[in-house]
Each structure stands twice: as structure tokens, then as C-alpha cells.
Design a protein that fits this description.
Elements: H1 3-16, H2 33-37, H3 45-55, E1 63-69, E2 82-88, E3 94-95, E4 112-113, H4 123-139
Antiparallel strand pairs: 1-2, 1-4, 2-3
Length: 140
């Protein structure tokens, strides 16, 4: 498969993540965010990025979890908030399944690479992965 086709497939998978995000996947103060703001992506970035990370091959395929905080992006994040996505170490390709939660472009250059809290997918990431796999099976 050509690199262009593989990239297009990853982008399509990333775009589908929003279709499977629901309020019961949210934790803490984010639980009411969807109802209060109508923003279906807010609060889902960690689990959504983690699910996508595992679905595209993780570190073995060159993907790196990245995070930004209020200290690095004051215009986009409130104190105590973070934003997660994944970046390919070699190509710099960004996959951000919840970027649409923001009104302005995400300044990815302000992020830092890090790791997720668990080695394998968390419970929330597993739910997202299962839903995506189900949605992809129906679509094919």
C-alpha cells in the first residue's frame, strides 16, 4: 500500500473517532461538558488519542503520544486542562481525533512527547476501539 493511501486511511480513521464518543466515556468535570456546551469532543482527547495510538500501531510504528497544557497553550486551554493527540516521530504526521473541540487551530509545535498512563489500552480506549471496529465493519 502506498504511503499516500495509508495516510488517507489513518486520516479517515481519525475522523471516525468523533462518531463513537459519548458522555458515559467522560470522567470528572467533563461529564457535563457535552450537555452544557454541545461540544461532543471536549474531555475525550486522552482516551480518543490513546485508542487511535493503539489502532495505528503505537510506538512500534513510530507514533508518539503528545500533550499540551495551559502553560504551553494559554489561549486554548484553561488552567488544569490538557490536550492529547499523537504524532509520528519520523514524518511529523499529526492525528488529533478531537481537534474540532477548539475554535482555533491547535498549535501542535507547543506540545511535548510523553507516554500514556497504561502500557495497553485503558478501559475507555478499549470501548472506543471496539466501537470503531464495529463501525468500520458495518461500513465495509
Amino acid at each position: 500500500m502506498s504511503r499516500a493511501i495509508a495516510k488517507a486511511r489513518r486520516a479517515a480513521l481519525c475522523a471516525r473517532v468523533g462518531d463513537v464518543l459519548t458522555p458515559e466515556l467522560l470522567t470528572g468535570r467533563w461529564r457535563n461538558a457535552m450537555a452544557e456546551t454541545g461540544n461532543r469532543y471536549a474531555g475525550h482527547c486522552y482516551a480518543a488519542a490513546e485508542a487511535l495510538f493503539h489502532m495505528v500501531g503505537g510506538r512500534a510504528k513510530g507514533w508518539l503520544p503528545c500533550v499540551m497544557s495551559h502553560s504551553t497553550w494559554r489561549e486554548g486551554l484553561d488552567p488544569g486542562e490538557t490536550h492529547w493527540f499523537i504524532r509520528h516521530e519520523r514524518t511529523g504526521e499529526i492525528l488529533d481525533p478531537t481537534a474540532l473541540q477548539f475554535d482555533t487551530p491547535v498549535p501542535y509545535g507547543l506540545s511535548k512527547g510523553c507516554g500514556f498512563l497504561t502500557r495497553g489500552p485503558s478501559k475507555r480506549a478499549k470501548v472506543i476501539m471496539e466501537r470503531l471496529q464495529g463501525a468500520l465493519a458495518v461500513a465495509s
